[in-house]
Specification:
Layout: H1 2-12, E1 22-27, H2 32-46, E2 50-57, H3 68-86, E3 90-96, H4 104-118, E4 122-126, H5 136-151, E5 171-175, E6 182-185, H6 190-198, H7 206-227, E7 232-238
Parallel strand pairs: 1-2, 1-4, 2-3, 4-5
Antiparallel strand pairs: 5-7, 6-7
Helix pairs in contact: 2-3, 2-6, 3-6, 4-5
């Protein structure tokens, strides 16, 4: 089995995240990209790559005791500050309700519109297949984004305007994944990640921040050992040929 999988890996030649130039990071809530992969985002922007944040919800259910409108305002302000720390200038909000009702198919089509407009060569998003993931926004976002990546050039799924020029997507990179197959060395960006996370004060009190710091330090060192650096972040990277009817995704 191991030799079979390794042969498939050699055949596929998955691109490196750092080699992509135009990245769309699709997130369920404000803070998901910063927490999961903030160091990688900071590395990409430091290399001159363009990173766009797309938020499915405004996080308006994320503060107990506050109205939804107050919560959304606070969380957006926190995210703007965090994104600035990471070097992200472009933020797009779909403003679906946090933990609310919206369809995956409608969300897919909204994401398709964004993909067609900004033409990313890499899409990052949450892994909807994370074991024991129960948050509906994470499951819906990951699923809808993966479907959008599969269908964005298909006019029968979502009508294409007459001036649209199709473009090629190199890969998808899932974060919050239990099955990483690529690791990004982020030694120089590790502290920046936590500076960004700390901006989300409405979500992360000092005690929780200490727990996050310890957890990610342990995880980052574990991933770093795999590629010979101090800290790394892990992703499940797939190329378009793997988006449909590709059983080996489980092992690659």
């Amino acid at each position: 089995m191991e030799s079979y999988v390794n042969e498939i890996k050699r055949m596929l030649q998955l691109p490196k995240i750092e080699d992509c130039d135009n990245i769309l990071c699709v997130q369920p809530h404000p803070d998901d990209g910063d927490i999961s992969s903030g160091a990688t985002v900071a590395k990409l922007t430091s290399l001159g790559k363009k990173v766009t944040y797309l938020f499915v919800t405004d996080g308006d259910a994320g503060i107990n005791g506050k109205s939804r409108s107050e919560t959304a305002k606070i969380r957006k302000e926190e995210e703007v500050r965090a994104a600035k720390i990471l070097g992200v200038k472009d933020l797009i909000w779909l403003d679906h309700p946090d933990a609310g009702e919206y369809s995956v198919s409608d969300l897919r089509n909204e994401i398709i519109d964004v993909i067609r407009r900004i033409k990313p060569d890499l899409i990052m998003t949450v892994d909807p297949f994370l074991p024991y993931e129960f948050h509906p926004d994470h499951i819906a976002t990951g699923t809808a984004t993966a479907q959008a990546a599969l269908f964005y050039n298909n006019p029968t799924v979502k009508e294409i305007g007459k001036n649209y020029v199709p473009h090629a997507l190199k890969a998808m990179a899932f974060f919050f994944t239990a099955s990483p197959n690529q690791f990004v060395c982020v030694d120089d960006q590790w502290e920046i990640k936590f500076q960004a996370i700390f901006e989300h004060k409405s979500q992360i009190n000092p005690e929780t921040f200490k727990l996050y710091r310890k957890y990610f330090d342990i995880k980052g060192k574990f991933y770093g050992e795999k590629i010979g650096c101090k800290y790394a972040e892990g992703f499940k990277v797939l190329i378009p040929e793997m988006f449909h009817a590709f059983a080996e995704n489980l092992w690659i």
